[in-house]
Specification:
The protein is α+β, with helices and mostly antiparallel strands and 399 residues long. The protein has 8 helices and 6 strands; from the N terminus they run αααββααβαββααβ. The strands form 2 sheets. Strands 1-2-4-5 form a 4-stranded antiparallel β-sheet, with no helix packed on it. A two-stranded antiparallel ribbon has the order 3-6. A hairpin with a 4-residue loop joins strand 4 and strand 5. Helix 4 runs antiparallel to helix 5. The chain is rod-shaped, with a radius of gyration of 38 Å.
Length: 399
């Protein structure tokens, strides 16, 4: 068994053995990202304010204190009742269930903030998956380039020995040396890219693990809710409530008052009860009603559009992900073992003088392309899952 095949077989066994650990570790990293995100913290802290707003939104306005001094300094009225003092309270009483609608409106505003929390969590999940996946792929590519570089170095050593005995031409050694240097440069650049990707991940996690983790492929399509669809549902609920409230606001509130009047000359006291009802001669709320009706119609149209498109997009994404998974399985089961074996035989054949340098280099190029292609597929799969995590959630409760 060749060293190349041994390396990749060992890597495969290690990945399988640490799969469960990777899933647990990844879930912990997600929670750390949530805990460190300032925007998410701000939204979560705001939720308590929306709860207080809903609590007080359905209450009456504060009562009005009234003080009235009458018949002061008018000598013509002194012989009558004399000066009087009135003290009272008045209260606006909303009609047509306005208080309940105002409380309902405040509740919808709180739901919108809760939605923003879930949306932010979904964004962080997607960004973390993309970041860690690129970091992991960079480490795997570096291992592939390291194996390729070692292969070229062995080839240069063999050619150097053969050149001493005149069994190869100098141009073969020159070409192999140049390709070896190029391979070593690719490996060095990929090592730098590992650090580059790790630095990007540090934006989300100040305390990163020492090594990149194999990000689990744990997305489930069942019971998924489109965030765009849910956003339009909330907009529709808000628009309907605003329209109903605008219609109710067209009916003016009544004002009820109670008080007591004291006559100074006789020290008599009388109790007063008053009621005032504005006359709705000018309906100034027609503009608000018209705007609310247009907003509701627009929200319902967008909600229907989002619902239809979300189902189509989710189904298409499931097809794309299924195709990528099938391709990766095929690479792991047939393509990579085949190219590993072909490279092993080609290396032995070149050392024995059975194939030319051009044929051997062509075989190495195929081996390199297939191994890199496997992780290109894996990264594409992770990007597809990240896009779904950003736009679809399993529920609308906080994680």
């Amino acid at each position: 068994m060749s060293k190349i095949y041994q390396i990749f077989l060992t890597c495969g066994l290690v990945v399988m053995a640490t799969l469960v650990f990777a899933e647990q570790n990844y879930a912990q990293l997600q929670q750390q990202v949530f805990a460190n995100d300032a925007i998410l913290k701000s939204l979560q802290q705001s939720q308590s304010a929306y709860a207080v707003n809903q609590q007080y939104a359905g209450r009456l306005n504060n009562p009005t204190f009234n003080l009235e001094l009458d018949n002061l300094g008018n000598s013509d009225l002194q012989e009558l009742d004399g000066p009087s003092t009135m003290i009272g309270l008045s209260q606006d009483i909303p009609l047509n269930n306005k208080l309940k609608l105002r409380k309902q409106l405040a509740g919808i505003q709180g739901n919108n903030n809760q939605f923003e929390i879930v949306k932010r969590q979904a964004e962080l999940k997607a960004e973390l998956r993309a970041c860690l996946s690129n970091w992991y792929v960079a480490t795997q590519r570096a291992e592939i380039f390291s194996t390729e570089s070692k292969l070229y170095k062995r080839q240069v050593n063999i050619l150097t020995e053969k050149l001493k005995y005149g069994r190869v031409i100098p141009s073969d050694l020159q070409l192999s040396s140049a390709l070896s240097a190029e391979s070593a440069l690719r490996h060095q650049n990929e090592l730098k890219k590992i650090q580059y990707q790790k630095n990007l991940c540090a934006k989300y996690l100040p305390n990163l693990p020492n090594q990149a983790i194999d990000v689990p492929l744990d997305f489930k399509f069942a019971n998924r809710v489109s965030l765009l669809e849910q956003e339009n549902v909330l907009k529709t609920q808000l628009a309907k409530t605003q329209l109903e409230l605008a219609k109710k606001e067209a009916v003016p509130d009544i004002t009820v008052g109670v008080g007591v009047r004291n006559y100074q000359e006789t020290n008599d006291k009388v109790f007063l009860v008053s009621t005032s009802i504005p006359l709705p001669v000018f309906n100034r709320n027609k503009g608000n009603i018209a705007i609310a009706q247009a907003t509701e119609a627009n929200a319902e149209t967008q909600s229907a559009w989002a619902n239809r498109n979300a189902q189509i997009e989710l189904e298409n994404k499931s097809i794309e992900i299924s195709n990528l998974i099938d391709a990766i399985k095929q690479y792991d089961s047939t393509v990579l073992p085949a190219v590993d074996e072909h490279l092993r035989i080609a290396e032995l054949g070149y050392q024995a003088g059975k194939i030319s340098l051009l044929e051997f280099n062509s075989t190495k190029q195929i081996w390199l392309e297939k191994h890199l292609g496997r992780f290109d597929l894996w990264l594409a799969l992770q990007n597809q899952i990240a896009a779904l995590e950003k736009n679809y959630v399993s529920h609308l409760d906080q994680d």
